[in-house]
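Narrative summary of target 7.
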Amino acid sequence: MAQKDIGHKIPIHTLTKTAEVRDFYDEWADKDQYNRDMRDWNYTGPLETVTAFQEHAVSKDVLIFDAGCGTGLVGKELKRQGFNAFHGADLSQKLLDSIPGGLYQQLEKVDLNMPIKCDDNVYGAVMCVGTFTFGHVKPPALDEFVRITKHEGLICFTINEAIYKEYGFDEKIAELETKGQWTRIAFFKSDYIASKDVGAWLGLYKVIKV
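Modeled conformation, tokenized:
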């Protein structure tokens, strides 16, 4: 499959190091360029993912961890659909700084390729939209998402279709199912950024703790 250039300056699939990814998004956040690009490209990932999630969420009060929250696009959609308790984490401080005040109850700069500084079984749900892509967060992050999620909590995520097998997400997802750590609720192709011919898989899983 041909790589798609959706970056505003350089092909995003050329990013390989954490520092490169951080610097890329720090610059992209300048003068609200990231948000303007997402609007121009008709980026549907947040809407599609939150819509899938809310169909199975047991309560609007569930505490949600928005992993790779960026400028808060998922948070805005969660709020629009009636959810009211979510924490956000992202690698780029400048993206975090651009989030409207009061949208999230907690924001933290984190590298999601490292262990999350959070106790086990804290969240009722984890959302991860637009973060599993070229040079970004790798499959072991799913282990951490399961760890911080409560029994029968939900994990909802997108994976850029071009890295799904290349990075081993297919194997990690199957491993967690085989080990009985989660069960599949939904897994389907998302439009994601259809205007740029960039598709993603959208997964929704229920965590099982024994």
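The domain at 12-207 is CATH 3.40.50.150 (Rossmann fold).
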